[in-house]
Design brief:
Length: about 425
């Protein structure tokens, strides 16, 4: 035994002279990842000792006291399921009951497409996970395709399709001068894209601009998609949260369905049920018939298997309990309208407060836009001044999270915006 140990030590000593890799050298080539711009804003806010600090960068709902909210319908659903939940795995496709109820929200309560079983759908890890599943599905079955993404869009969209190795193109969306939709350029891009292109569309409450096409514009977009044979993938992260009415917020999708498109859709319950940390979402792909839907779903599950195997159960059970119980669903509809109405009210208050200060600029875009975010039009330098001089935190593209605006800070925020914008 002693001789074998000595021999082993000798081998190790001799090997070390030939450059055996040390433990410390395995990851020497790894550089720090760039900070997420939104999470970086929150970190800076938390580190600021100023009593006047305001965070309008966070993409999560807050009440008028600036506090996170747990909806009453969620609390009641949790009390119903308490003690009745086992810890078994869900299937790869997730909770079928949750998926069924979720499809009704997007495709319609009495949708023939649901009755005909033409929709391949799986539970996903919120909207982000749904987008990633679809991106991988696109890469696998249309390997030579690209994805057209609006300028601007939620920053993570670029990360998702990049990591799925799907080449990206962009299309015009926001018009900086009018702070509205650049509809003419958008339509030109749709017409000029190669036939059969994939497009990423925000179903409602476009993030980060808050600028949505009108119903008439959506109909024109749908028509041009039909003419050019394009595929529309909708990211619907804010259904109900935009207008306060889930049916109204699904109008873009319903228009495409009326026109006979086969679409894809990512849905999330982070915003409209406040289930941010539960990561509850759904990916659906409309197919030609039930047979095709079964095949597509099998492939979506196959993609999910090596990623995370199967999705979590608790949040899905909360959603299915709320949506399948008429009383709880009605309570949810009331609560989501309260959240949306507060956001809309804060838009009005912010605009009025700025205008009362005698601003020479137009602030109509604050109330023309919709949803959680307001694309303020402030420059990166003006945003820096807001942070450095007024302790107001937001992303440097000027995106204001209206959820962070309250009756207590709206006057202070308006005064600061007026100060930095007038002296530009």
């Amino acid at each position: 035994m002693a001789s074998r140990t000595a021999i082993s030590r000798g081998i190790l000593r001799r090997s070390s002279t030939f450059g055996v890799r040390s433990v410390a050298s395995w990851w020497k080539n790894v550089d720090p990842a760039p900070k997420d711009p939104i999470l970086g804003v929150t970190e800076a806010f938390l580190a600021d000792p100023s009593p006047d600090k305001v965070n309008v960068g966070v993409g999560a709902y807050r009440d008028d006291n600036g506090k996170p909210v747990v909806l009453e319908c969620v609390r009641e659903a949790e009390s119903k399921i308490a003690g009745n939940l086992n810890m078994e795995y869900l299937p790869m496709g997730g909770s079928m009951k949750m998926v069924e109820e979720t499809l009704k929200l997007a495709y319609g309560e009495n949708s023939d497409l649901i009755k005909e079983k033409r929709i391949a759908a799986v539970q996903a890890l919120s909207g982000t996970g749904a987008c990633r599943l679809f991106a991988d599905f696109q890469k696998r079955f249309h390997p030579d395709s690209q994805i057209y993404i609006p300028v601007p869009t939620w920053a993570n969209h670029h990360n998702i399709w990049r990591d799925a190795q799907v080449p990206q193109r962009t299309f015009h969306y926001y018009h900086p001068e009018s702070k509205g939709l650049d509809f003419a350029s958008l339509m030109d891009d749709v017409k000029n894209a190669p036939s059969g292109s994939f497009f990423l569309l925000h179903a409602c409450a476009h993030n980060p601009t808050g600028v949505d096409p009108s119903e008439e514009q959506w109909r024109e977009i749908s028509y041009q998609f039909k003419v050019n044979g394009h595929f529309a993938f909708f990211d619907m992260a804010y259904q109900g949260f935009a207008s306060g009415d889930p049916e109204r917020d699904a109008k873009s999708i319903r228009i495409f369905l009326e026109d006979g498109h086969l679409i894809g859709c990512a849905q999330s319950y982070a915003k409209n049920m406040g289930l941010y940390g539960q990561r509850v979402g759904c990916l659906s792909v409309l197919c030609e018939d039930e047979t095709q839907a079964v095949v597509v779903k099998s492939q979506l599950q196959q993609i999910a298997r090596p990623m995370y195997s199967n999705p979590p159960v608790h949040g899905a059970l909360i959603v299915s309990t709320i949506l399948s119980d008429p009383d709880l669903k009605n309570l949810w509809l009331k609560e989501v309208k309260v959240m949306a109405d507060r956001i809309i009210g804060m838009r009005t208050a912010l605009r009025e407060n700025i205008e009362k200060l005698g601003s020479s600029l137009s602030w109509e875009h604050i109330t023309n836009q919709i949803g959680m975010f307001c694309y303020s039009g402030l420059t990166p330098e003006q945003v820096d001044r807001l942070t450095n001089e007024f302790h107001i935190y937001l992303t440097r593209n000027g995106r204001i999270s209206m959820a962070g605006v309250t009756t207590g800070n709206v006057g202070y925020l308006a005064n600061a915006i007026h100060e930095v914008s007038q002296s530009a």
